[in-house]
Amino acid sequence: RESVTFDRETRSERIAVANVGDRPIALSAQPTMGGITLRTEPEVIAPNAEGDIIISYAPQGDVMQDIETAIIVEGRGTIRPSERMIKITIKR
After folding, report:
1. Which stretches of the chain are assigned E, i.e. beta strand?
2. Tens digit of pLDDT for each residue in 61-77?
3. Rounded to two decimals, what is the model's pTM?
């Protein structure tokens, strides 16, 4: 999945991820908007194993209009940033 959408009821979304490499990976991101966090389960994904990226949203006040932002997932080697981007839409 390349995108997630949050509304008044949705507070987190899961995206399945597979580590097809030969080394463990730990994914992270630095969101540009307050209230958005990213974590993985498990925290470190073993080689040839699967896990989940969990993106959560905690509202920072009233959302007056729809918001679109993105995060770049770090920790996946030399993949281009456009291939590591997850688009986030917050519906009012």
Report:
1. 3-6, 12-19, 36-41, 49-57, 67-72, 85-90
2. 777 789 999 999 998 66
3. 0.86
